[in-house]
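sorry to bug you again but im stuck and you know this stuff better than me. theres a chain ive been looking at and ive put its sequence and its fold in token form underneath. id like you to explain what the token line says about the fold, in plain words if possible. anything you notice is useful, everything is just below.
___
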Amino acid sequence: MEAKHEKYDRLIARAKAVDRIRCAVAHPCDESSLRGALEAAQQGLFVPILVGPEGRIRKVAAEFDLDLSTCSIVDAGHSEASAEAAVRLVREGKVDAIMKGSLHTDELMAAVVKRDTGLRTARRISHCFVMDVPALQQALIISDAAVNIFPTLKDKVHIIQNAIDMAHALGLALPKVAILSAMETVNPDVPSTIEAGALCKMADRGQITGGLLDGPLALDNAISLSAAKIKKINSPVAGQADILIVPDLEAGNMLAKSLTFMAGADAAGIVLGARVPIILTSRADSVTARLASCAVAALVVHANRQQPQKAAT
């Protein structure tokens, strides 16, 4: 537990070294969301554009003694209008990322996924947790625990590619991807094991690129070298995975929350696959986790600027 936040601290330091991005903060109408945006700005992670009811935003700032002198505000009447205005700023090229404020995630994502006015790309939109688990040496990426409820095999191709591309942005040249199930062998009675085998073969054929895949793997075999050795699993991924791909949202959500509440982990959340990264924070997030989410977005934007052709796929 002494190493808590060490991985996030490295991530935040890395993000501070790149150019600051412009971020639309959608509906920051409570202390947590407004303070979080201002802290990220003070740390040099982004330039905030506050989008929401200007009167309410200024009232919150006055109540909690928050300084808005360096912020611009785009007035929007209510939460849905705030989400739509934030998306519009992206489409107009005025911001590089969106940060969720005090509106519901569903309200924000509804504006993001609209066919004609949203931020869809050819990629499936997916969510990643970047988790700082004190017992592990490296940050652990978990996907998808918040957006895709029962992803299909085709969806998982996009989920994995989004996670790999994000890992590249965080500095991992060849991230190790473990596709999780309840066991480490393909079992015709367990669909997730069959999909894991198919996904690994798709990676072999170049349909998923940039990472080293293996699966199915049970959770212990994915993150514990000793467990993998005991079961005689000969794999460059087993025991040292950087990315965990879960079978469905329920499994991912339970895994992430188990790590948070039983292993002392923090979870930075980000949505990928849209035109820009979308920072999803929770009121329960620590300051460091909130800053880490912003740092991930900044690094993703920087990586996409370096490789614009990848961002467009």
